[in-house]
């Protein structure tokens, strides 16, 4: 076997490399301005670790989880716009089961009206079915994913409103609080859930041939079908997974606020998830995908937001600032820039050799 | 009386990282001449063309147009200089009308508005120059590939071109359409245009061109008048080997008592194929002959489940099987290399390894994955067996040449060890060396007991390889002839007259 030489030029061409560099640069700036940005402390009273870095990972949980599914959807050459609405649906259903008859149970407290298992399972099942509905429109109806998922994007929040009579319920049920605010092994629970989801999706796509099938269908659906891949089933499964993951994100979100918010829960999550995937190096045209890249993409987005809060940049400028940094990251990742650096790396290597 | 040179290229050298794509090549084109550019895939034809139209920058050498040195910076610049290129894949907008396609980007204006009347009138005029009486306001996608090709040519020549480059314009045309194209080429030639013509079909070169230039591995072999060089010598020069060696093929031997491997009885889908029956013995190779659109591909697609048969029965190895999807066919050990390699065959962005393992893996289902090592071993085995030119199995399949891509698809199906292999135009658009290799592989598989259905538009290769030949016409089987005893004339006569 030939020893694989370290290929700097290839590394420079990879979008994931640039995502890592971008994240490192943003963190470096944070460090220069506030050296204590990196400090992590242990709080014995809650048994949890605290610090900006922990916070970034914790707060990025919803987007990271959703974007695992979004990565697969984009690898198929599509997009799923409904994920944000599904977050709202999941929250609404969970709160509905916790506080079923608000007229009887007028004050929120540490109780649940229906068994806790239903509070967790029903939102996940409903979201998975909604994902399946998206997949059905795409796979069997031949509708473009962006259009097919637009339906639930628009009506999902409506469904959430109807379920909760347009009201915002709150709860104090402590097992429910654990999902978004609890901790395990000193880490916030959302981080633990994120790790489980990322590992599960990675194993499912890379330890089976599912990932290869997704990429194959994403590159060339017709050839994939003629190679015996049941393209329709692959599409159905990918949208189902994305729906399910949106449901998980929805539970985390509503557990953080211990409430449902049909208007604002998961708002613009679809955009952040798409952005995370794209920053992570997966091409919108479909094909090769990188889950690791997506995780970094999601962290970048959250780091920027944290950066803005942390350094007291005026709230009005937050969006503009976020856009500015993302623009820089995207330009760094663009084909000409990557080629330029890859060429320089190749030249330097050639120079070193001679 | 040869015209004067309009284009002269001297000592053209182009280097890509690690390889010299062209090494000191000279080339000239005369006024009113059709000049064929020949060579195997990777010989440097495309590189030379791309040098003329400015896509590739030359590292040394000069290009003279009408005696003046030019350095086109890109296809648009080249077009301004009078050099137009029509690429293999038609680069037009199928949703726009024929007229719009011809004039897009340079619409004639009247009172600051696009003059649609003028556009349509001039488009009609151009197309009638090609003896095409069509409605130019219809969208391009409404018309056949041939007409689309003509539209591309019309677009190219309307920019007052002195030089027209045609890169494999005939690869997706049938015989009549090719003749139509040729008459247009002769017309343009008569008007003094110089045409550079690239094709893999040797007959076409002799039918239409005046001179030919042969390249091999980036070097110039020579430029010859068309009557100076016979077909055999030409191939020898292109490949650098003797043709007899390349084509020393032996038909598959089928013993009379060989079992029947595939039997299709009265299959049809009423809209495309009415009713067709086929039997295929173990280790036998049958050829499907017929014109484009005669139902060859449609029959193959039905056997493979790519389109669904509404009636009839299919037996594989004596078992009655129901084939509704390609997956069903693969389960029944039928394999199918489709006609359109790019659209239906190769998965360009994935590696060779993934392309090869795909059919095996899809039969297993994704829950039973092959390990990375199994995949690599499988891919390496076929890369070696088929002589696929690649440094390793991780190269993107889309970056391979046409012939190698075809071998990858062939490997995908060989790896699935099918009982029946259907090959739809497996040798189209690939060079003569690779073509001979594909044919050899096909026959070797027959020797190992695989039954092969071979579809091709080139009668000589059908006759050379087939045990039996099924002749299709108007979406029906019109005759079945013995491969050994029939001649090209017999088949042509049956195709023309519709009966044996």
Summarize the structure in words:
Chain A has a two-stranded antiparallel ribbon. Chain A is globular, with a radius of gyration of 22 Å. Chain A has helices spanning 8-13, 15-33, 52-59, 61-75, 83-98, 116-139, 145-163, 174-181, 189-206, 210-219, 221-226, 231-257, 269-279, 291-310, 318-333, 335-353, and strands at 40-43, 48-51, 183-184, 187-188. Chain A has 16 helices and four strands. The longest helix of chain A is centred in the C-terminal third of the chain and has 27 residues, at 231-257. Chain A has one domain. Chain A is mainly alpha-helical. Chain A starts with 7 loop residues before the first helix and ends with a helix. Chain B has 500 residues and is an alpha/beta fold. Chain B has a six-stranded mixed β-sheet, sandwiched between helices. Chain B has a six-stranded mixed β-sheet with strand order 18-19-20-15-21-22, with helices on both faces. Chain B has a four-stranded antiparallel β-sheet with strand order 2-1-4-5, with helices on one face. In chain B, helix 13 (352-364) crosses helix 14. Chain B contains 18 helices and 22 strands. Chain B folds into two domains: 5-242, P-loop containing nucleotide triphosphate hydrolases (Rossmann fold, 3-Layer(aba) Sandwich), CATH 3.40.50; 260-497, Rossmann fold (3-Layer(aba) Sandwich), CATH 3.40.50. The interface between A and B is medium-sized, with 21 and 31 residues.
């Amino acid at each position: 076997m030939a020893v694989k030489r370290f290929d700097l030029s290839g590394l420079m061409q990879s979008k994931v490399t640039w995502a890592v560099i971008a994240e490192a640069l943003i963190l470096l700036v944070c460090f220069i301005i506030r050296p204590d940005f990196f400090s992590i402390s242990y709080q014995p009273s809650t048994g949890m670790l605290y610090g900006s870095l922990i916070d970034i990972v914790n707060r990025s949980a919803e987007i990271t989880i959703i974007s695992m599914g979004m990565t697969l959807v984009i690898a198929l050459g599509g997009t799923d716009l409904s994920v944000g609405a599904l977050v709202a649906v999941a929250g609404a259903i969970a709160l509905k089961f916790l506080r079923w008859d608000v007229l009887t149970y007028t004050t929120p407290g540490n109780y649940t009206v229906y068994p806790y298992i239903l509070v967790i399972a029903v939102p996940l099942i409903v979201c998975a079915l909604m994902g399946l509905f998206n997949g059905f429109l795409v796979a069997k109806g031949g509708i473009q994913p962006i259009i097919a998922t637009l339906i639930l994007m628009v009506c999902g929040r409506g469904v959430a409103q109807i379920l909760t009579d347009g009201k915002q319920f709150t709860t104090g049920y402590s097992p429910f609080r654990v999902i978004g605010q609890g901790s395990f092994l000193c880490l916030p629970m959302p981080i633990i859930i994120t790790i489980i989801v990322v590992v599960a999706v990675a194993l499912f796509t890379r330890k089976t041939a599912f990932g290869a099938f997704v990429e194959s269908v994403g590159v060339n659906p017709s050839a994939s079908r003629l190679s015996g891949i049941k393209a329709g089933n692959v599409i159905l499964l990918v949208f189902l997974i994305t729906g399910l993951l949106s449901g998980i994100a929805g539970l985390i979100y509503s557990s953080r606020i211990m409430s449902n918010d049909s208007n604002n829960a998961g708002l613009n999550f679809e955009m952040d998830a798409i952005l995370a995937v794209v920053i992570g190096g997966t091409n919108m045209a479909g094909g090769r995908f990188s889950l690791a890249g997506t995780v970094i993409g999601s962290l970048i987005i959250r780091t920027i937001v944290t950066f803005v809060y942390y350094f007291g940049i005026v709230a009005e400028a937050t969006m503009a600032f976020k856009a500015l940094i993302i623009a820089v990251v995207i330009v760094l990742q663009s084909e000409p820039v990557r080629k330029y650096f890859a060429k320089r790396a190749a030249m330097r290597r050639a120079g070193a050799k001679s | 009386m040869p015209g004067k040179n309009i284009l002269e290229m001297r000592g053209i050298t182009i280097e890509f990282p690690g390889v010299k794509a062209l090494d000191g090549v000279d080339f000239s084109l005369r006024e009113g001449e059709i000049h064929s550019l020949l060579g195997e895939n990777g010989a440097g034809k495309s590189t030379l063309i791309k040098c003329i139209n400015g896509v590739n920058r030359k590292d040394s050498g000069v290009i003279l147009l009408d005696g003046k040195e030019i350095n086109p910076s890109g296809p648009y610049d080249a077009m301004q200089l009078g050099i137009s290129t029509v690429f293999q894949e038609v680069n037009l907008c199928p949703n726009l009308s024929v007229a719009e396609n011809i004039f897009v980007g340079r619409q004639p204006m009247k009172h600051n508005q696009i003059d649609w009347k003028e556009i349509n009138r001039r488009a009609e005029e151009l197309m009638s120059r090609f003896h095409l009486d069509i409605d130019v306001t219809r969208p391009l996608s409404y018309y056949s590939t041939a007409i689309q090709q003509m539209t591309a040519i019309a677009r190219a020549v309307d920019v007052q071109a002195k030089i027209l480059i045609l890169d494999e314009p005939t690869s997706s045309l049938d015989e009549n359409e090719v003749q139509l194209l040729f008459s247009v080429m002769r017309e343009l030639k008569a008007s003094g245009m110089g045409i550079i013509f690239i094709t893999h079909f040797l007959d076409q070169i002799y039918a239409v061109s005046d001179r030919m230039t042969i390249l091999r591995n980036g070097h110039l072999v020579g430029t010859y008048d068309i009557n100076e060089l016979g077909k055999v010598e030409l191939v020898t020069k292109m490949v650098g080997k003797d043709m007899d060696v390349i084509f020393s093929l032996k038909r598959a031997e089928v013993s009379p008592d060989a079992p029947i491997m595939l039997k299709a009885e009265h299959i049809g889908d009423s809209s495309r194929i009415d009713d067709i029956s086929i039997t295929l013995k173990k280790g036998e190779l049958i050829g499907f002959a017929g014109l484009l659109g005669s139902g060859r591909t449609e029959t193959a697609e039905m056997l493979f489940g790519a389109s669904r048969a509404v009636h009839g029965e299919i037996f594989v190895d004596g078992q009655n099987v129901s084939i509704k999807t390609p997956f069903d066919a693969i389960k029944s050990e039928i394999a199918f290399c489709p006609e359109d390699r790019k659209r239906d065959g190769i998965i360009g962005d994935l590696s060779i390894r993934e392309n090869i393992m795909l059919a095996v893996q899809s039969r297993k289902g994704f829950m039973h994955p092959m390990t990375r090592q199994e995949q690599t071993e499988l891919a390496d085995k076929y890369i070696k067996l088929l002589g696929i030119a690649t440094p390793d199995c991780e190269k993107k399949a889309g970056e391979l040449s046409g012939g190698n891509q075809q071998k990858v698809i062939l490997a995908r199906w060989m790896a699935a060890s099918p009982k029946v292999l259907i090959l739809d135009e497996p040798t189209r658009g690939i060079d003569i060396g690779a073509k001979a290799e594909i044919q050899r592989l096909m026959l070797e598989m027959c020797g190992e007991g695989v039954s092969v259905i071979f579809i091709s538009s080139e009668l000589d290769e059908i006759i050379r390889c087939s045990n039996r030949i099924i002749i299709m016409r108007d979406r029906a089987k019109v005759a079945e002839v013995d491969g050994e005893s029939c001649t090209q004339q017999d088949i042509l006569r049956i195709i023309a007259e519709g009966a044996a």
